[in-house]
Design goal:
The structure holds 3 protein chains of 3 kinds.
Chain A: H1 2-14, H2 18-47, H3 57-92, H4 100-122, H5 147-175, H6 188-220, H7 231-249, H8 252-266, H9 273-286, H10 302-314, H11 316-329, H12 339-362, H13 364-370, H14 374-404, H15 410-433, H16 451-481, E1 513-514, E2 520-521, E3 543-544, H17 560-576, H18 592-611, E4 614-615, H19 632-660, H20 674-700, H21 703-733, H22 736-739, H23 741-773, H24 783-808
Chain B: H1 5-38, H2 64-92, E1 104-110, E2 113-117, H3 124-127, E3 130-134, E4 139-145, E5 150-154, E6 159-163, E7 169-173, E8 179-185, E9 198-203, H4 205-214
Parallel strand pairs in B: 1-4, 3-9
Antiparallel strand pairs in B: 1-2, 4-7, 5-6, 5-8, 8-9
Chain C: H1 3-23, H2 31-53, H3 61-86
The chains are: A mainly alpha, B alpha+beta, C mainly alpha.
């Protein structure tokens, strides 16, 4: 019994299997859905009558903020990616993601980030300025409590989790598809996930930059968000540049689920599937140029408001195509109205209302009346709850048999549907009529006429919230005693339904193959290119020397992901938990014991991770257009660098923003010594030369050349940091912050972040040097050297821009 | 009943959007409900020939025609909405050049009250949270903030603008009728956000100028 | 040509361009022209490093496309915020 528990605990804590990780994401997000829902129902109760006093303003503001943050970051996306983790490898015919331990790390970073967010309630205060965290009210001087610091730490951990997942899924979906599975044969759910991942990759680094800048402003007294030149508009731009793609990120997976469920239950193919996919891509692209509609009344000028009105109204066009295609799919169909189909159609209905009201808000002229009112709240809840949550619930019922092997109770699910839909309309429709009522107010006067509509909405909230108890009960009970479902209870065509329910740990015995006429072969040797020996396709699971017990599920275990995540968690906790030290200016004392523990554990975990012999099985015959000649790891590194481009782009963009907004910026040469910058540039450029020479030496078998080059890179990196440290020291002691706080802010933050990247590179160089001395790379595999080079040259490229921007202009 | 120029313009544009929204909704919902009811599984339903089955990628289905039609019809509607919006925003963002003496007022948002500054130097405590304006005159407001990001909105006037420290945003309106209206803050600015309630008092011109002249600061 | 020689040639170009950057101010006085040329030179240095040190010149086109997408999106934020601040104000 104890042994079983221990084996079970080891399995769930150390798993790298995509199906296990999918289940972990789903269960965690459902739990947080309930938690955030409790926050919501409490707020609704408070708002049901005027001048109510169940919650005071302080608590209410924390509730509304954490409700938003939890739902957006810790429920909607993780639930969708729980499905993506379980289902996507099955649907594209591979056995796991490209980087299974990275996948596990993503989950544990996500979990600890959620713990940190919730912990903030217990450390005095949770963040309390809305999930949108507008400046300058989030500055330390206006919000001295540590709630926002903890929130920032939680968000940083969460973005790290998401970036790791983005890289993993992109490499997997491009490089590990089953033979013959061209991108255009994929059904809409994988496409929706792929498009979502692209948006995540390019949007989240902007959010990361924003949160890091906010944290640095609060903890170190920089002034990006508290200055007039930066302040509200800088945050608005950097946040919403991320924020708008983000709302599509939480919507698209649900659209993908709906677009696969409806054809399955209609017994006909999706109408215009290639146009639906095209529409998703178009909407994702346009989503990056509409963010200004969140800034319509900030005073950005008439040209910009007109531009954003046009782009935002235009983005409704792809969604029109999607909705019409979904409806046309039902034509001449044989529609089985089981729970997944009911929820999918319900989601479409809600999406129509949500989408149309979005067009109202896209008009800058109407926004001058509707901004900051409950009309907005109604619009986005119709989309995020009505389309996204309802669509993901459809996915829950749809894939429940595949994941658990059992069927849920159909009658209870239908009752759940009716109550949810009715409750939903009663909860949110009245809010459209409350278009004079401000958002985020804890109470309102009895002299307004808002009482009745609020009471109605609260009633709807109880019905909707209560209905979800049916969901939890149904799934919980059915997972224990539901009737066996068999492999394909819905008679669907996507690959996951060819496997047993639940699938075995290694998924496919034999990877299916697609031929050009669209036929899919399972387990047969016909149709493989070059008539190769099919027995090579019989898979073995990813292996680690830990847990080689052959009993179910104990292959592929690794303890390092959870340890790394825990290390990061306590590191950030230490950084953000310190109580306010001085009142004026506000500063925070970091909690050094936790920080030190985090660093130590992190170094140990990194070491363990890199030494662990973890083999990832890579099938030889895969579809990998357009990256056929690019190895998985290299594609992963370039993808990571793509995210870094956005991250540094936002840092540099922030500098541009405040500088062009400030007439009194000191000219070149007054603050920063050009010759320092020149020296650092020469040093770093030379280090790029030595880095590439190291790779060349290794390839030529020249061991001493390799060691000399790597040593040179290390010395030059140290020289760079030495000059920089000297410069920082002299600037700091000259009192630059008092007289030139904004130039100091942009300089210290941008070069500081760059410096951290240089330092990380130097740590990698030490590791490579140690290996080189032991004789590695020269006669063997140089890919690690090559990958280091890619990173190092990128860091150099960033400096190539920083030098003129800070020293010469 | 016309309350103000901004309300009239909003009602007209919002009305256009609403009529089109209802028309489009009726059309799309009818389609959705009709198809769902008509093609639901019944004993008499025939099995479609192109049912997706395991082992074959589903055949392609659908015409580009449908996309073209959807996009064209939608574009026509959307262009109408854009044109209407552009006309309205041109109006909102071009305040009148000249307003009467006492009709240009500075609004300064604070945590957690509204300060109104008149051009005759009226003392702040005379106006805290109370904005007096004359009826049937163009009124121009320059809105800013003394501390954090607020939003100044007049309920019933369908007009608001952000109050951002270091920036001034200008809005204007022409009140058609006297009356009292509520001013509230529409951007979460701290614990006192919900208490930032002010009052717009639209006075008859005689009453307004009597008050205005009596508060001149010498 | 021998790759080591190529790397040295690129290095020489990078150093030379840096020297030009430092002395550019004496050639172009007009602020906008100066900034544009300066950042243009920085851009060519970045391209050299990417093409030859990061090997992009010899990689499949798909990889360079991958990189360019990221750059385009990063420039959207900067470009459109610049428009916001400086275009169309009364």
């Amino acid at each position: 019994m104890a042994e079983q528990f221990q084996a079970s605990a080891r399995r769930w804590l150390y798993t790298t299997n995509h199906k296990d990780i999918g289940i972990l994401y789903i269960i965690t997000s459902l739990f947080l859905f309930a938690a955030a829902g409790v926050l919501a129902i409490t707020m609704r109760t408070q708002l049901s009558t005027p001048d109510n006093s169940i919650l005071n303003a302080n608590v209410y503001n924390q509730f509304v903020t954490v409700h938003g943050l939890l739902m957006i970051f810790w429920v909607l996306s993780p639930l969708a990616f729980g499905f993506a983790n379980f289902i996507i490898p099955l649907e594209i015919g591979c056995r796991d993601l490209a980087f299974p331990r990275l996948n596990s790390m993503s989950y544990w970073f996500f979990l600890f980030s959620g713990v940190m967010m919730i912990l903030s309630f217990f450390f005095g205060a949770a963040p309390d300025l809305g999930w949108t965290l507008y400046s300058p009210q989030t500055a330390a001087q206006f919000s001295p409590s540590i709630g926002l610091n903890l929130g920032a730490g939680a968000l940083i951990l969460m973005v790290v989790s998401i970036t790791m997942s983005s890289i993993n899924f992109l490499v997997t979906m491009f490089k590990m598809r089953a033979p013959g599975l061209k991108l255009r044969y994929m059904s809409v759910f994988p496409w929706a996930i792929l498009v979502t991942i692209f948006m995540m990759l390019y949007a989240f680094p902007s959010f990361l930059a924003a949160v890091v800048l906010l944290y640095v402003d609060r903890a170190f007294g920089t002034v990006y968000f508290s200055s007039i030149q930066g302040g509200s508009l800088l945050w608005d731009n950097v946040f919403w540049f991320f924020g708008h793609p983000e709302v599509y990120i939480v919507l698209f997976p649900a659209i993908g689920v709906i677009a696969d469920i409806i054809p399955t239950f209609a017994r006909r193919p999706l109408y215009g599937s290639k146009y639906v996919i095209g529409a998703l891509i178009a909407a994702a692209l346009i989503s990056f140029v509409v963010w200004g509609h969140h800034m319509f009344v900030t005073g950005i000028g008439i040209a910009s408001t007109k531009l954003y009105t046009v782009t935002t109204i235009a983005v409704s066009l792809p969604f029109d195509v999607i909705v019409i295609s979904l409806i046309e799919t039902l034509g001449f169909a044989k529609l089985r109205l089981k729970a997944p189909a009911l929820f999918a159609l319900g989601a479409v209905a809600n999406f129509i209302v949500g989408g149309i009201t979005g067009v109202f808000l896209a008009s800058v002229a109407l926004d001058y009346a509707l901004r900051g009112t409950y009309f907005v709240v109604a619009h986005f809840h119709y989309i995020m709850v009505g389309a996204s949550i309802i669509g993901l619930i459809a996915g829950l019922y749809y894939w429940f048999p595949k994941i658990t092997g059992r069927m849920y109770d159909e009658k209870m699910a239908k009752v759940h549907f009716v109550l949810s839909m009715i409750g939903f309309q009663i909860l949110y429709f009245p809010m459209f009529l409350l278009l004079d009522m401000p958002r985020r107010i804890v109470t309102y006067s009895p002299q307004t006429d808002w009482g009745l509509l609020n009471l109605t909405a609260t009633l709807g909230g109880f019905i909707f919230g209560g209905a979800q108890l049916l969901l939890f009960y149904n799934l919980y009970r059915s997972s224990r005693v539901g009737p066996p479902s068999g492999p394909n209870p819905w008679d669907a065509w996507t690959l996951e339904w060819a496997l047993p329910s639940p699938p075995p740990p290694h998924d496919f015995d034999v990877i299916p193959t697609f031929s050009t006429d669209g036929t899919i072969r399972f387990g047969s040797s016909a149709g493989l290119p070059n008539g190769s020996d099919h027995s090579k396709e019989i898979g073995y699971p990813n292996g680690s020397s830990i847990g080689s017990n052959s009993s179910l599920h104990l292959e592929g275990l690794s303890p390092w992901p959870i340890l790394m995540a825990f290390a990061a968690f306590i590191f950030f906790l230490g950084l953000t938990i310190g109580k306010p030290a001085n009142p004026q200016p506000v500063s925070y004392e970091p909690f050094w014991p936790l920080i030190a523990d985090g660093v130590i554990l992190g170094v140990i975990s990194l070491f363990g991770y890199s030494r662990e012999k973890f083999t990832v099985h890579e099938d030889v015959h895969v579809e990998s257009w357009p990256f056929k000649q690019v190895p998985n790891m290299k594609l992963g590194i370039w993808t990571f660098l793509g995210a870094e481009v956005i991250f540094f782009g936002v840092l540099i963009g922030s500098y541009f923003f405040v500088r062009t907004n400030d007439a009194a910026w000191p000219p070149a040469g007054t603050l920063f010594e050009i010759r320092n910058g020149f020296a650092m540039t020469l040093v770093l450029l030379t280090s790029s030369l030595t880095a590439i020479m190291a790779l060349a030496s290794a390839r030529a078998g020249n061991r001493s050349g390799l060691i000399a080059s790597l040593g040179g890179t290390l010395v030059l990196g140290a020289a760079f940091l030495y000059i920089k440290a000297g410069e920082w020291f002299s600037l700091g002691s000259s009192g630059i912050f008092q007289n030139y706080s904004l130039p100091a802010t942009s300089y210290f933050i941008t070069t500081g972040t760059h410096g951290v990247h240089v330092f990380a590179g130097m740590c990698m160089t030490v590791y490579l040097l140690a290996n080189a001395i032991k004789g590695k790379y020269v006669n063997g595999d140089q890919t690690t050297l090559e990958h280091f080079g890619l990173y190092w040259h990128f860091v150099d490229i960033v400096w190539v821009f920083l030098f003129p921007l800070f020293y010469l202009i | 009943m016309a309350v103000s120029s901004t309300q009239v313009q909003f009602d007209s544009l919002f009305g256009l959007f609403t009529y089109l929204a209802i028309a489009v909704s009726i059309f799309v919902f009818s389609l959705l409900i009709y198809f769902t009811v008509k093609y639901r599984e019944k004993p008499s339903s025939r099995q479609p020939d192109d049912t997706p089955i395991l082992g074959k990628v589903p055949p392609s289905r659908g015409h580009a025609r449908s996309v073209v039609l959807t996009v064209s019809l939608s574009t026509i509607i959307l262009v109408a909405l854009i044109v209407g919006s552009f006309g309205a925003i041109d109006n909102i963002l071009t305040p009148p050049q000249h307003v009467c003496q006492g009709c240009a007022i500075e609004v300064i948002a604070h945590q957690f009250y509204w300060e109104f500054k008149y051009d005759n130097g009226t003392k702040p405590y005379d106006t805290r949270d109370i904005l007096r304006v004359p009826v049937e005159q163009n009124i121009r407001l320059n809105v800013t903030s003394a501390d954090v990001f607020h939003d100044f909105g007049i309920i019933g006037y369908d007009i608001k603008t952000d109050a951002i420290p270091g920036r001034t945003n200008t809005i204007w309106f022409y009140p058609h009728a006297t009356g009292n209206f509520t001013i509230q803050c529409f951007e979460l600015c701290g614990v006192g956000h919900y208490t930032m309630i002010g009052h717009l008092m639209v006075l008859a011109q005689l009453d307004y100028f009597a008050w205005y002249n009596s508060t001149v600061v010498h | 040509m021998n790759t080591n020689y190529l790397y040295l040639l690129v290095f020489a170009a990078l150093i030379g361009e840096t020297d030009v950057e430092v002395n550019l101010r004496s050639i172009f006085q007009a602020e906008n022209v100066f900034v544009t040329v300066l950042l243009g030179i920085a851009g060519t240095k970045a391209i050299l490093i990417a093409m030859y040190y990061q090997h992009l010149r010899y990689e499949p086109k798909s990889l360079s496309t991958w990189v360019i997408i990221g750059l385009v999106i990063a420039s959207l934020l900067m470009g459109l915020s610049f428009v916001q601040l400086h275009v169309g104000h009364p």
